[in-house]
Amino acid sequence: MPAKSMHLQQNHLRLLELRLWLLVSVAALAVAGGLALGLALARTPGVQDWLPSGPDFFHKALVTHVVFSFQVWLLAMLAAASAQGRAAPLPGLVGVGLTITGCALLLVVTLAGWGEASLNNYVPVLDHPLYLAGLGLIATGIACALFRPGNDIPAMAFAYAVALICFAIAVLRLPSDLDAAFRYERLFWGGGHVLQFVNTGLIMWAWRRLAGGGSTPLSRLAFALLAAGTVAALVIELRLDPLGLSWRQAYTDMLWYLLPLPPILVAADMLWHRRRVGGIAGLALWASWLVFVLGGMAGFALGAGDTRTPSHYHAMIGGVNVALMGVIHVVLLPALGRAAPSLRLVRWQIGLYGGGQLLHALGFYLAGLAGVARKTAGVEQGLDSVFKLVSMGVVGLGGTIAVLGGVLFVGHVLARLVRHD
């Protein structure tokens, strides 16, 4: 085959891979939204008895909702990031197939009502062999995309590899006779913390793409520090008892002391070079910074069991999400020749989602300051003051606005991706 024809074929396959990863990532949000509707129905008297596994469907759907809205969405976007540049497309296409198969298994187990729900941190699961196999296929599919020649995001690939190693070590070291809920909590605690380095690398990558700037010495240092920080997880896994409190606390300390600096360096580098970013890219970048900074500040001033904790993680995840929404519209869809014809709708998507997440997280934090307990609802919240009522009202208002922006984003992007050329 002539070199020119081979080059054209490689480019075609790269674009196909990118399109498929975007479809997987945005479809994951759509599935998560559908499961959220199922969660609402599961709490409706009379309706819940018609759902798969009856009243137990709520917790099972909640598990899979979390997996699709966080793990699948973010990891598929990580794979899409790896599809840029000189990456060989065939391993990525294999990865897409494995990931889709894994997602299908998760849905089959959930809708069939199989397995007990374990609402552990980071990667909640249904305790069923097919569900675990689905998670394994997704993890392998993402690995195919990241561990290939020409990958331009080596720091995130390294961090992802460390996360997989932590999961593997936990499987080997944890006793087999543990209670299922406790076992899954410990199994996913270490690697789940390392995945936060991966997600932080993803937002750093998104900021750079939105700013349109090339690599600089400071940005390269930031990504190197991000990757190096994950090595601490290997030390923790190999030197501490996975059943002990010191093992658990060591991972919390790892995030506190090693994770904040890399994104600060990237943001400082962009400000130092006075990159002026306008339009959709500027809106997404500043919205992401505002929400992400709020989440970071909340993380250093958490309470004991109150709603300041969900304020922290909702803002951190929201900051990542709004940056990725911007990258999809500004960089990835145009690369596919599928850019949105109307920027007004895109502004509404990013503005509603970013603004809604900001209000949502701020309301949670204020409610936590007043002593509202997390993971409570109704009368259990103890909303016995005007301040508590207003704060939780802001939570609901912000959440509603963010959901509206998210629905507009998912529907619009899916329509752009599935349309015929």
Keywords:
1% strand; two-stranded antiparallel sheet; mainly alpha; 421 residues; 75% helix
Characterization of the model:
With 421 residues, this protein is mainly α. The protein has 3 domains: 1-152; 154-276; 278-421. Helix content is 75%, strand content 1%. It is built from 14 helices and 2 strands. It has helices at 3-42, 57-82, 89-112, 129-146, 154-173, 180-211, 217-229, 231-239, 245-258, 261-272, 279-299, 308-335, 343-369, 386-418; strands spanning 116-118, 125-127. A two-stranded antiparallel ribbon has the order 1-2. A hairpin with a 6-residue loop joins strand 1 (116-118) and strand 2. Helix 6 runs parallel beside helix 9 and helix 6 (180-211) packs across helix 12. The longest helix is centred in the N-terminal third of the chain and has 40 residues, at 3-42. It is globular, with a radius of gyration of 21 Å. The protein starts with a helix and ends with a helix. It comes from Magnetospirillum gryphiswaldense (strain DSM 6361 / JCM 21280 / NBRC 15271 / MSR-1). This is Permease. Keywords: Membrane, Transmembrane, Transmembrane helix. The chain crosses the membrane at residues 20-42, 62-81, 93-115, 130-148, 155-175, 187-206, 218-236, 256-272, 279-301, 313-336, 348-369, 389-415. InterPro entries: Cyt_c_oxase-like_su1_sf (IPR036927).
